[in-house]
Amino acid sequence: MNFPSELETLIRARYPILYVISSEEMRVQSVVLDIAKKRQKKVFEWSYSTGIVPAGTSIQSQKNRSAATKEPLAALDQVIEQVEPALFIFKDFHPFLTRSNFAVVRKLKEIAPAPEEQFQDHRADFAHARNSSRARKRKSPC
């Protein structure tokens, strides 16, 4: 199975956290955007420098940035609060997955097994994280 179809299968299976390792960030993002379009989901991206913004928008057009979501915990809270079906791409999130960032690790563990009644059909999918028994680690050929 190729990477785009495997990723789509995992998203359709509602894995709450997927961890993708790739040196081709834009190519992976393009695959996620294509899947989201087919599945009628919004896509947001996070980086420490921008916070959460709509994926694929240029820095100049990101007028609605929320400075608060630059912080990892605030960004994860926004993932939890998301009502509409959405995919989140967290770029370069791995430095925040250390034992010294226990609050971030704990928040991810709370997101991963989220009960269906809590998020109903609108549970957000979250890409680029680990430290969960339900997380799936996949090295991208991209």
What would your notes on this structure say?
The structure is a single chain. With about 140 residues, the protein is α/β, with parallel strands linked by helices. It has one domain: Rossmann fold. It is about 35% helix and about 20% strand. A hairpin with a 3-residue loop joins strand 2 (about 40-45) and strand 3 (about 50-55). Helix 1 crosses helix 2 (about 25-40). Mean pLDDT is about 80; it is low at about 115-125 and about 130-135.
Features:
142 residues, 5 helices, Rossmann fold, alpha/beta
What would a concise description of this structure say?
Helices cover 35% and strands 19% of the residues. With 142 residues, it is α/β, with parallel strands linked by helices. It has a single domain, classed as 3-Layer(aba) Sandwich (Rossmann fold).
